[in-house]
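Quick start: what a row looks like.
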Amino acid sequence: MPKVVANESHAAASQDDCKGASRGRSWGLLVTAGVGGTLVALYAVVLPFVTPALRRVCLPFVPATSTQIQNVLRMLENRSGSLVDIGSGDGRIVIAAAKMGFKAVGYELNPWLVWYSRYRAWRDGVHHNTRFYISDLWKVSFSHYTNVVVFGVPQMSQDSFDTDLSKSKGAGGIPRTEDYFSG
């Protein structure tokens, strides 16, 4: 009889060990899933900010200061028509122009910044006068805009880009901002 009791207690101990190992495996899977999910989320958020630096022409996100926005708005005084901000970033210039009464459009490569711009336009009550598009600015025609705002990145003054801007409705009077972004 003692042998049977010993075998039963050994079997019970084995079952407890299996349950403990199973719990340990569950925690391992949970930790692995948590770390993996965090890495995927980090990758999804960081990638749009890093890829512009890896392109043929490096176009980083540099937020406009309030002085720079005021300089653009001063250039737009006594002007009308449509406005496009090329590389609109977080939408500060587009939203400020919409507040002045322009139908303003922003083109940006980074989807996170476009979604944030749309939210800010909605929050500021100008979403009816603004549009934001996720697009490569080298593949967009700006010929139907009368006012073109280009943030002051020297690489954007390439001949092919300038040629497209010269076809704009406002040719001869396009407010190119790269020369006016002081402050």
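That is the whole record. Confidence is low (pLDDT under 50) at residues 171-183. Helices lie at 2-54, 66-76, 92-99, 111-123, 159-166.
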